[in-house]
């Protein structure tokens, strides 16, 4: 007797073919597709009646530059999408790696799921991942004048600039960061008589 997870895994392998790597671990199924096959695989996941992933739950970017304590030697950026099939009551995680670390780009899936619009904008804003075919790819969480992408592992914790209101100019201005770099290690304060009461 096969479990529901095995049925899903077999259906994914049959529908997506050899272009996708399907794995199951810890009660979850993950599909890894190449960036060139990403949009077509997502279309298949939605339209194939044996899968019927009609709802996109989440989309996010990932920066693997420090993964495995620096031992990872693969593409730096990935896009991860979580899908839900209400008809079959199952979920799947789809991961695709951006082929170019300097210019991370994958195809937009907004024509397939309109809900991907803001998620793709968020991944662009925070990681700098570009989505080809997205109709309105602009910042969504940071300021329009913001420089860089704050969720990248090489982005400094204190940022590059800070902003403040200048009463003389009567506007918000940007200036270099004035915060001194510091260690973020918690101090442990022990009392001599702790727990002796």
UniProtKB/TrEMBL annotation:
This protein's UniProt keywords: Cell membrane, Membrane, NAD, Oxidoreductase, Quinone, Translocase, Transport, Ubiquinone
Domain NADH:ubiquinone oxidoreductase 30kDa subunit: residue ranges: 31-160
InterPro entries membership: NADH_DH_suC, NADH_quin_OxRdtase_su_C/D-like, NADH_UbQ_OxRdtase_30kDa_su, NADH_UbQ_OxRdtase_CS
EC code(s) of this entry: 7.1.1.-
Membrane topology: Peripheral membrane protein
Mitochondrion keyword on record: no
Catalytic reaction list: a quinone + NADH + 5 H(+)(in) = a quinol + NAD(+) + 4 H(+)(out)
Transmembrane segments: none
One Pfam family, short name: Complex1_30kDa
GO molecular function: NADH dehydrogenase (quinone) (non-electrogenic) activity
Cellular localisation: Cell membrane
Assembly, per entry: NDH-1 is composed of 14 different subunits. Subunits NuoB, C, D, E, F, and G constitute the peripheral sector of the complex.
Stated role: NDH-1 shuttles electrons from NADH, via FMN and iron-sulfur (Fe-S) centers, to quinones in the respiratory chain. The immediate electron acceptor for the enzyme in this species is believed to be ubiquinone. Couples the redox reaction to proton translocation (for every two electrons transferred, four hydrogen ions are translocated across the cytoplasmic membrane), and thus conserves the redox energy in a proton gradient.
Family membership noted in the UniProt record: Belongs to the complex I 30 kDa subunit family.
HAMAP family from the UniProt entry: NDH1_NuoC
Protein name (Swiss-Prot/TrEMBL): NADH-quinone oxidoreductase subunit C
Organism: Massilia niabensis
């Amino acid at each position: 007797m096969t479990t529901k997870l095995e049925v899903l895994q077999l259906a994914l392998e049959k529908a997506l073919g050899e272009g996708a790597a399907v794995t199951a671990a810890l009660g979850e199924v993950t599909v890894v597709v190449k960036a060139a096959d990403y949009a077509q695989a997502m279309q298949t996941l939605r339209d194939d009646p044996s899968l019927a992933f009609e709802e996109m739950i989440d989309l996010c970017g990932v920066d693997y530059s420090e993964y495995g304590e620096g031992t990872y030697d693969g593409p730096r950026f990935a896009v991860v999408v979580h899908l839900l099939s209400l008809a079959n009551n199952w979920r799947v995680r789809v991961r695709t790696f951006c082929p170019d670390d300097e210019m991370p780009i994958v195809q937009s899936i907004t024509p397939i799921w309109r809900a991907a619009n803001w998620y793709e904008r968020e991944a662009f804003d925070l990681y700098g991942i570009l989505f080809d075919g997205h109709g309105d790819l602009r910042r969504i969480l940071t300021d329009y004048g913001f420089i860089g992408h704050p969720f990248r592992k090489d982005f400094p914790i204190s940022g590059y600039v800070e902003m403040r209101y200048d009463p003389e100019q009567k506007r918000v201005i940007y200036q270099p960061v004035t915060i001194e770099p510091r260690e973020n290690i918690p101090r442990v304060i022990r009392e001599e008589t702790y727990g002796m009461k």
